[in-house]
Each structure stands twice: as structure tokens, then as C-alpha cells.
Write a structure and sequence with these properties.
It is a single chain. This protein has one domain. It is about 80% helix and about 0% strand. The chain has 4 helices and no strands. The protein is elongated and about 55 Å long.
Length: about 140
Amino acid sequence: MPTINWLAVLAATAASFLLGGVWYGALGQTWLEALNRRKEDLPKGPVPYITAALGSFVNAAMLACFIQWLDRDPERQWNIGHGLALGAATALGFLGASTAKHYAFANWPTKLFAIDFGVDLIGFMLMGAILTAWR
């Protein structure tokens, strides 16, 4: 049975974290407007960044576990397409569905959901691609 490639997990973590920086760098003002906040209202210091990095690590590690658990057939070779699909299915099926419930009850704008979930969807797909390519 293959073991988890922790270097691939770290690479997937870094890719997801960096994607978040680029994503919110591009959509940050729209995100703030959807929250009715200003940049000055955001928390200062390293805690949000550390939390985001740790969250990305846990996401990448769990996705690596899913890939390992699903990879039971020695005849089947996982490829980047499988990783993209598993990342999308995981994000949509678990994260998107759960997040949508919270956004609905909080009455937060759909635009905010699209920004927040969009980065997670693409991030999970990116992580899945990295984890399956680097096995």
C-alpha cells in the first residue's frame, strides 16, 4: 500500500495558500464590500495567516488520505484529471454544501459565497492535481 507523500502535501498546502493570496489580492475589495467592511476592520497580525496555512495543510493532508483510501485497484493509475475531479467533488460535496447552509442562515450575499467558495473549489482542484501528479 502506498504511503502519503508529505512533500506533495506540503507543495499542495503552499499552492492553496498562495492561491488564496492571489485570489483575495484580486477580489479583496469586492469581498470587503460584500461584508460591508473596510480593510482597516480586518484583524491585524499573523493569526489569520497562520490559521489559513494550517487549514490548507489539513485540507491537503485529508485529500491525500482520500486519494490513498480510494486507490485500492493496482490496475488503475491515478492522473491529474482524477485529482482535479476528486478535488472538485470533495469541495462541492462537503465544503460547498456545508458552507452554503451557513451562508443561507447568516443571510450573507451570494457574491460573498462565490468569492469564498470559489477559492476553495479551485484550491481543492489544484491540491488534487498536485497530490495525484506527485505520487
